[in-house]
Records
---
Amino acid sequence: MIAKPVVVFAPAMPGERRRILSLGEVKWGKPMGPGHVARLRRARDLLDAKGYDVRDTLLACYSGVGFDAALAGERDVRTVGLQELYG
């Protein structure tokens, strides 16, 4: 299954770096875990190097089947499952 990226930008402000509010990944049929978060952190670092403002970017994992328990302790990661989407 192909991962689907989710990027939420703040409105552009003249003279300021473009701010990324959230950076995420969607997996419908596979539980998400630390490897997914590591990939998002790497993407955030690359976007920072490209000149985007990522100082308060929220990382988000969207899954149709759940999450590895290791994600529960991640303070900068939001997990969004079916309950949050359809509850």
---
Amino acid sequence: MEDHFKEDICLDDICKFLGYSKYYVLHVFQEVMELSVHDFIVRRRLTEVKSLLLEDRLTIEEIAQSCGFKSDIALYYKAFKRIYSITPGQFKKMNTMKIEEQ
């Protein structure tokens, strides 16, 4: 999953690759990672988003799309805010100000 988190991954693809049922994959993944497969992928994508926001070369929407949030940018904003308690724009602005102060 680490190598493909930017792609449109679905549970069926993961199960087919691993050769296990959906129930088994969901159960074991949740038990080991303490996250659902979906939440893991979203969090991994958001980690990548944060690092790209610090680089300041792309727009927020371009970053979202490059990290796998292709179909619904609104979901990306909601997920970012839910996890980090600020919007991607606020995160980018805060970190741009920190860099300028140095």
